[in-house]
Amino acid sequence: MLVVKKFGGTSVADKERIFNVARRCIEDYKKGNEVVVVLSAMGKQTDVLLDMARDINPKASKRELDMLMTTGEQVSVALMAMAMDALGVPAVSFNAFQVQMHTTAVYGNSRLKKIDTERIRTELENKKIVIITGFQGINKYDDYTTLGRGGSDTTAVALAAALHADACEIYTDVDGVYTADPRLVKDARKLSEITYDEMLDLATLGAGVLHNRSVELAKKYGVQLVVRSSLNNSEGTVVKEEVKMEKMLVSGVAVDRNVARISVIGLLDQPGVAFKLFNHLARHNINVDVILQSVGRDGTKDISFTTTADDCDEAVEIVKRHGEGSLKCQKIEVEKEVAKLSVVGAGMMSNPGVAAKMFEALYDVGINIKMISTSEIRVTVIIDDKHVEQAINSVHQKFSLGEN
Ligand code: ADP
Ligand code: ASP
Ligand code: MG
């Protein structure tokens, strides 16, 4: 059996944890399995590196940021190989260059395109445990790229797909996927299984337990995932196409605090304005999320939208540049202390009233909603960031998610 095992930053944060992971992998290896290990940078090392960069140059290029960030993963894989060696098991570490993990050209948020598995296969045949850097790739310029924060999960799933692995296990600091972030909601409940679609929505909407593109890839290539704890042996959550249980009305609540709202006030109320505004942003690779347009009045209208907090300053700069020119807006307002709260569940498709129930949960605790957006299987609101904990707990309780 070929197993891909991915361990996140907390799971390899120090010497003791590195040896703990090494032992878990060796256990699998000794059962006769082929073991491929994907690692993240130790602890909060990626954040540490980004802080160093900001300190030197707040406008550092994305290329150099990727050069810097990829060092984090390289440290973990080399130390892991040394730990396994110290435990008497042959292991070899590789970075994205050595296994040729090709990505799109863009820095900071690349997509994996192709992985050469030859070198991995050779080393597995040599009876080694193969340890690979998560989160990184190389582009057509032979530069390092990164897959976006949390991207090591995606490396693991891509490797599992490319190697036709029999199992893909994501080990982290919680023992599975919960109905809400257990750090924010005390009575959050662990799900034994969840569909790709629901997991994809939860991950995209802020449930950082899995990188959303890892779920997308898992669905595309039919890679069944297990999310488990690296610190205990409890069962974990299986992420797959179909679940046995009847579809739940709501499977979880997610929150994303890396959000900013930009309001462009007093735009001309005429065709093409929204197109121009969002086209400028798209050309700079800025993803826009929730969009709200006011009813036109006196020949003008307002458009509000959200971006990630990281993209906010650049987005404002772009809107200013064009807003004062061709778009002729009167004012731009920016709010950085906002958050996005969403309920997700395939069951809501056939059950009206989910949105109302969510709004009621917020009303119960006197929280104002700034923006609303819905799809067939989710309801999303934008609220003030300071209300996040109260809001998520109230919504979680309203849908009785903590109960079995
Ligand atoms: P790793 O470094 O192992 O990749 P992450 O920090 O990326 O770990 O992801 C694990 C964290 O995700 C947990 O500590 C938890 O706080 C958070 N999280 C957010 N939403 C959920 C959820 N629905 N279920 C479980 N964990 C969640
Ligand atoms: N080290 C990277 C990050 O912190 C990738 C990962 O952890 O998945 O975002
Ligand atoms: Mg992660």
SS content category? alpha/beta
CATH architecture of the largest domain: 3-Layer(aba) Sandwich
Bound heterogens, unique: adenosine-5'-diphosphate, aspartic acid, magnesium ion
The run of helices and strands is EHEHHEEEHEEEHEEHHEEEHEEHEHEEH
How many β-strand runs?
Answer: 18
Q: State the oligomer.
A: single chain
Q: Please indicate the count of domains.
A: 2
CATH class placement of the largest domain: Alpha Beta
**Percent range for helical residues?**
25-40%
Strand-residue proportion: 25-35%
What value does the Rg take, in angstroms? 23 Å
Instruction: Count every helix, treating DSSP H or I runs of 4 or more residues as helices.
Output: 11
Q: If you consult CATH, what is the topology of the largest domain?
A: Carbamate kinase
Unreliable stretches covering 5 or more consecutive residues: none
**What is the end-to-end distance?**
35 Å
Shape: globular
Keywords:
single chain, 404 residues, alpha/beta, Carbamate kinase, VC0802-like, 2 domains, 11 helices, binds adenosine-5'-diphosphate, binds aspartic acid, binds magnesium ion
Secondary-structure blueprint:
Blueprint lengths: L1 E6 L7 H16 L3 E6 L5 H12 L5 H25 L4 E4 L6 E3 L8 E4 L2 H8 L3 E5 L2 E3 L5 E3 L5 H11 L4 E6 L20 E3 H9 L7 H10 L3 E5 L7 E4 L11 E17 L4 H11 L7 E3 L6 E9 H15 L7 E14 L9 H11 L6 E5 L2 E7 L3 H11 L6
Helix pairs in contact: 1-3, 2-3, 5-7, 6-7, 10-11
Bound molecules: adenosine-5'-diphosphate, aspartic acid (ASP) and magnesium ion.
Please sum up the structure shown.
By secondary structure, this protein is α/β, with parallel strands linked by helices.
